[in-house]
Amino acid sequence: MLDSAVVAPHHAAKIVFNDHSVAEFKFIWLRDSCKCQLCVHEATGQRLLDSNSLDLNIRPKELYINDRGQLEIIWPDASQQEKHRSIFDASWLYRYGQCFMENTYEQQDVERNRPPKELWDREKIKKQFPKLSYTEFQSGDAGLRKWLEYIHIFGIAVIQGVPTQNQEEVREIVNRFAYVKQTAYGLTFDVLAEPKAAHLANTGRYLEHHTDLNYREKAPGLQLLHCLKSEVLGEGDEEAAGGKSFFVDGFHVAQWLEDHEPAAFHILTSTPLRFQIKMDGKRYSQLWPVIALDSHGDLAEIHYNNRTSGPLQAPNNVVIPFYHALKKFVDKLRDPASELVFAMSPGDVVAFDNRRVLHGRTAFNPRRIARHLKGCYVDIDEAYSKYDSLL
Amino acid sequence: MLDSAVVAPHHAAKIVFNDHSVAEFKFIWLRDSCKCQLCVHEATGQRLLDSNSLDLNIRPKELYINDRGQLEIIWPDASQQEKHRSIFDASWLYRYGQCFMENTYEQQDVERNRPPKELWDREKIKKQFPKLSYTEFQSGDAGLRKWLEYIHIFGIAVIQGVPTQNQEEVREIVNRFAYVKQTAYGLTFDVLAEPKAAHLANTGRYLEHHTDLNYREKAPGLQLLHCLKSEVLGEGDEEAAGGKSFFVDGFHVAQWLEDHEPAAFHILTSTPLRFQIKMDGKRYSQLWPVIALDSHGDLAEIHYNNRTSGPLQAPNNVVIPFYHALKKFVDKLRDPASELVFAMSPGDVVAFDNRRVLHGRTAFNPRRIARHLKGCYVDIDEAYSKYDSLL
């Protein structure tokens, strides 16, 4: 509800809301936000008003609270045919006016309906293992929402009991909310032991914690891995056969680093490291800090893959500090207390935020383990657009 | 060529090259860069050496220039089985040592083989119109390279005479070097006049200069538009029928702004603007500065679309300066002296860097013009990986 609306100095309207908060809206901003049919295309919701055509010194002809409690402004537009009457609901002004409130500067939060993220270590994730059955996942919007919510909160979610007859089933899962993101590895890719591996993932070798495709201009946000086959062959200890998957919440480790080793945190957030790979005669190369922050200083992306990192290119006085900082970060990553470890069973689909959760696999003996995963990537903003639409 | 290599203070080897330049390489960096078969997987080129396992205080057991002029280091590794001998070519050290040269801090430049970009306005681009025939484009690597080079240099290239029988021909063009990037609009999309348009592009309306998909986490880098049909119907002035395409080099305009209006340039590079759209019940939303710079302060991306920009959310003292700065930028964008304008003919494929070159279309009368474009997007780093492989 609006208590009052008056013209204020400095080209602004001063609005008092009924909770006594006060915001000043610049006239040019109000005119530019006009939602009338001349300014917004009704069918598409896209803006017709060309901001650039506005008089930057525009002032309202009339400005008042109308009898429905809305702010109403009549503008002195150039032509009579295009006389604009802007009508703003109190709730809209209150929401978008947060950044104009006295003593506040709060951006409208697009994620405001989402629950907070929860960073985790081994103990925490074991208590709240984010899994659901394929039946539940398939049961309408509620199942899809639950799964997407797990991914938002924990950066990882497991669907159990996904059919394995169709090797491309993982695409059907993605098609429920978006589309598969193609890469140079194809629409989907196989992870299995191969005699002549073109990629280290396709050997029985231990794969350290890593994020994928750091050498691309934007690493894919969401990765899905569908276990089609995982059999222990022959005699002997199953544990010794190896091949377990592990996942670590990179945001949790980065947060730990910021809290306990702020100098190391600073170096890893400010030193770009080159990631690179050669594939089919093509070279991919990109610079990323190991811990990328957004403009608010919040954790945005983790980039770490020992196998594809290039020689550090930095001022010489940063070289040794960088190695020390990286060691603190990676030691904590590899601490068993950080890890979620489990043997993927046929029918498991693990989906994880590839820019938050690092993944890896213990070594395995390809003569003892027959293992086949089918994977794919998805633009994670597509996943979150769908998630937000279900909230 | 190496003149000398000696152990220096502060855990480094001091190398003098035969052009008298001097670089200091930290031991940990040299050990981490070892290219021996124990450290790098021969078949895949991926690193086997786990940086995190290294002794951060490692020192060479022996360090000398061998009889082939290479730097050779023998390391005192823990186990005798894994004794490492690192061999570095002088040229490799020289290239990667730029950042360790005294008084220099130059990163290895992955784009070093590419010609410089050329920013353009109307006069310049008219003299060097970056076009080639479909026949030339199809003539092996040389044609593909020429086309990709145009895109790198000018941010735009036209192929003429592309067959129009197959409406999806644009995918064949992309498949020569990469794969189509799917979006919520599909693998390809149509731009044509429709009676009930779900998107403003599909009306006869004037479309101002814009970049596409600013509301995604990463706007697609490369866009292709294939003109399948463009006929002027009925009597009267062809010019009056409208429907011409225009393109503007956003980097040129941004550079002009930095040179002539540095305060406006600063505001547009530092103020995030929200871009948003609702589609099929889903909301996409992303913050970008209109002019995004990289960490060196070089132009990286342009984001501007009047139709999808949301209410500015910024401290109140920035609101009016932002509108003034934007007007200076957009007025220059719309200056006819900035524009490349032409009527697309059937068979034309225009490809452009969607994060550098803004595009638009003059209004047209859908009763006079029958117009059909087929478009698609591509990850531009895929295009440049291919381009670099052809240099």
Automatic annotation (TrEMBL), chains A, B:
Names of the cofactor(s):
L-ascorbate; Fe(2+)
One GO BP on record is: carnitine biosynthetic process
Listed GO MF terms: 2-oxoglutarate-dependent dioxygenase activity; metal ion binding
The keyword Iron appears for this protein: yes
Domain (TauD/TfdA-like) ranges? 127-377
Q: Where do the Gamma-butyrobetaine hydroxylase-like N-terminal domain residues begin and end?
A: 14-94
Q: Which UniProt keywords apply?
A: Carnitine biosynthesis, Dioxygenase, Iron, Metal-binding, Oxidoreductase
Q: Name one GO cellular component term.
A: mitochondrion
Pathway the protein contributes to: Amine and polyamine biosynthesis; carnitine biosynthesis
Protein family (similarity comment): Belongs to the gamma-BBH/TMLD family.
This one is known as: Gamma-butyrobetaine dioxygenase
